[in-house]
Amino acid sequence: MTQDELKQLVGRAAADYVRAQVPEGAVVGVGTGSTANCFIDALATDKTHYRGAVSSSEATTARLKAHGIAVFDLNHVETLSVYVDGADEINAAGHMIKGGGGALTREKIVASVADQFVCIADASKLVETMGLFPLPIEVIPMARAVVGRKLAALGGQQAVRVKADGSPYITDNGNQIIDVKGLRIVDAIALETQINSWPGVVTVGLFARRGANVCLLGTEHGVQRIDYAVG
Ligand code: 5RP
User: Fold this and answer.
1) Where do the domains of the chain lie, and which CATH numbers do they carry?
2) 231 falls in which pLDDT band (50, 70, 90)?
3) How does the average pLDDT of the chain come out, rounded?
4) Fewer Cβ atoms within 10 Å of its own Cβ: the N or the C terminal residue of the chain?
5) 36 C-alpha to ligand 1 centroid (Å)
6) Å from CA of 78 to ligand 1 middle
7) Ligand 1 atom with minimal separation from the 36 CA
């Protein structure tokens, strides 16, 4: 199966999983990216079961609305039973690197109110040690250099994210992203805590302090469900 086919497989599996988990009229938290898009398309086939969704990006909002799924402001939703999102890397503890699609901050906010984080990923995303995928960090633009110097001290090689035309990539929140290569992340919780404490950092794309509860992993042999003990 191609990577796209695996994404579609887990997107469908996640829609079935959510349907079995949440009562009729529930609001679902929805992530961002190509795998999350497959989930949205699968969710849409069942949309009358839900009141709507809370979205983690402008792109996801547009896709949900195009399917006729109502999108609620998080300020009007207190809790979510389930948040479904992709990942750039996930390890055996359910810790993730996210933010390849630039939506890490809103993803972390929406995930923080959910009882369950359901990660959907193709098998290439499961890693033993995180860090091969460049770690995204959303920063306030004026803090780019100071945060960059601190990241250099950690030993990574960093680059400010740019668009295909070379202009700076700007997040939905009006900020910039630094991507850091070459980190071998052995203690993701400690690194998340450390980087998040630096002035000017909006969000680091490590999702370890609040990791995944479940991963639906698309493999050649079908969808494998992994449950994590979240402490
Ligand atoms: C977006 C994300 C995505 O979940 C992550 O980049 C995975 O994307 P894809 O499903 O396209 O591989 O964190 O900010």
Assistant:
1) 3-127+209-227 (3.40.50.1360), 135-204 (3.30.70.260)
2) low
3) 97
4) C
5) 7
6) 25
7) 10
